[in-house]
Amino acid sequence: MRQQAHSRILLTFICFLFGAMLGFSYQHAKNDPSRREWSDSGWKREYEFRSALIALQKENRSLKQQLVEKQDELAAWEKKLADRQTNEAGLAKEAEQLRMYVGKARVKGKGVAVTLSDSSYIPSEASATDYIVHEQHVWKIVHELLISGAEAVAINGQRISHRSYIVCNGPVIEVDGTQHAAPFVISAIGDPDVLSSALVLPGGVVDELVQDHIDVKVEKQEAITLDPVFAPRP
Prior knowledge:
The chain is an alpha+beta fold. The chain has 2 domains: 2-67, no CATH class; 107-226, Protein of unknown function DUF881 (Alpha-Beta Plaits, 2-Layer Sandwich). It contains 5 helices and 8 strands, in the order ααβαββββββααβ. The chain has helices at 2-30, 33-101, 135-147, 192-199, 205-211, and strands at residues 107-117, 152-155, 158-159, 166-169, 172-175, 178-181, 184-189, 215-226. A 5-stranded antiparallel β-sheet has the order 3-2-7-1-8. The protein has a 3-stranded antiparallel β-sheet with strand order 4-5-6, with helices on one face. The longest helix has 69 residues, at 33-101.
């Protein structure tokens, strides 16, 4: 029992001594001017750093907003440029089509070739003029081809336009002042199936020419090249 009481007294003394040392250390640290100065300086630095960070974050948000606005402006300009290029491409295509329709541009493509020949048989009692190709026969073929979607038409290789004229001059016909003798080959660029079908419809233009004793041959062509109007021919 005495040994246990002695141990308790010793343990109590050690705890008291340790508590006194802790209290002294805390009081010393609290009253130390250098530590208090360091603490004030540390809080000040931390405040400055936080203020700088907040300012940088605010500036970053402002720059991001400006970037979004500039990107929107760039997208708008790109759209305007794309629309302008599309319009210019459309105008260029339209101009090319107009040049093609008026015969100012060389054209290539599929189409048909219609050959009109004088009748190979003329009865002795008949008039020869009733068995040869006249300008109205050529015009009927040209007109039918154009209304059926032909993009370009030529007669014996001579391109015709919206101002072209065809007249008879004895045994030949004149196309815009240039004489051509039979047979007459009328070439047209367009859908071969559509053009040929329009020509050979029952009771259509081919049947009318056959009734006028004209030999007519319609052929589909895979490749036709037509020079511009008034271009020099080789």
